[in-house]
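Morning. Coffee machine broken again, so started the prediction first thing and wrote up yesterday's gels while waiting. Chain of 295 residues, entered below exactly as on the submission form.
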Amino acid sequence: MDFTQLVYFVEIARLQNVTKAAERLHVAQPALSQSLQKLEQELGTKLFDRIGKSIRLNEDGRIMFRYSEQILELYHNAREELADRLKSETGTIKLKFLCASDLIPDIISSFQAFYPGIGFKIVQSSELMDYDFCITSTYNNVAPENGRLLHDEEILLAVPPGHRLARRKRCRLEDLKEDSFISLDAGKQLRRLTDTFCKAVSFRPNIVLECDNPALVRNLIAAELGVAFVPADTWEQIYNDRIGYLHIERPVCVRSIFITWPQNKYISRQGYYFLNFIQDYFKNRHWLMRGEKGR
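Came back before lunch.
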C-alpha cells in the first residue's frame, strides 16, 4: 500500500463515484480503478458494494475510510508543522467572520502592528469549511467545540428619535407588537439569534425591511422607518445620538462571541500568535456603548 492509493480511495469514497473522482483528481479512470482494485487485494476485502454501475461503501469500506482520513489529516498536519518551523512570523491566516465583522479592519491592523509579515484571507460565508479560525456567536453561553470565549454582548433595541419609547431605558418585546422592524437578512447569524430570542417569548416581529449592512440599518432607523435589534458593542459604527438604545428585559438578549477552529486541525505558530492576540483584544478593548454611552 502506498500513500497515493489512500488519496485515491478517500476521494472515491467521498464521491461514491469512480468517474467523478477521476475528474476531481485529474487521473485517468482506468488507473483509478486499478488502484482501488490493488488496494482491495492488499487488504483482502472488498471496500465497496457494486450495484449495477454504481458503487457504495460497505462496512469494511467505512472502517477503511475512517482511518484513511485520519492518516491523510496527520500527514497534512505534519507538513503544516514542518513548514511552520521555517516561517514562524510570515504566512497567511484564513479567517472566517460570522459576526462582529465591523471590527475586522481594527483587528487586522492592530495584529499586523506586531506581526507585519502575517497576512489574512478573510471570508464571511458560513458554508466555507477551509479556514483556520472562525469568529462566531451563540446564545446562552453555549460553547462550541474547539473554541474560546471572547466576549459576552448584550443585544439592544434601537428606536428612532420620535419613537414613543425613545426616552425609556428598558423595554419588553411585547411592548413592540405594533412596531415595524428593520432586520438583517434571514441567513445572517445575528438574525437567527434574534429570531430565537423572539420565539422564546412567542413574539413575532413585523419585519418590513431586510438588509445586510449595519450602516444602512442605522440610516433606516434614523429615518424613522422602524426599530431594530443591534449588538451593544460590535456595531459601533451604527451608534448615533439621534437614536435611542433600550435594554430588553424580557427575554434577556445576550450573545456569546467565540473564536473556533476545525476539529483536529493543526494550529500553526502564527495561528497561536493570533489566538492569543484576539483574546487580549476583546478583553482590553474600550467598548463605546459601555463607556461613552454609559450602558
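The domain at 89-295 is CATH 3.40.190.290 (D-Maltodextrin-Binding Protein; domain 2). Going to sketch it on the whiteboard this afternoon.
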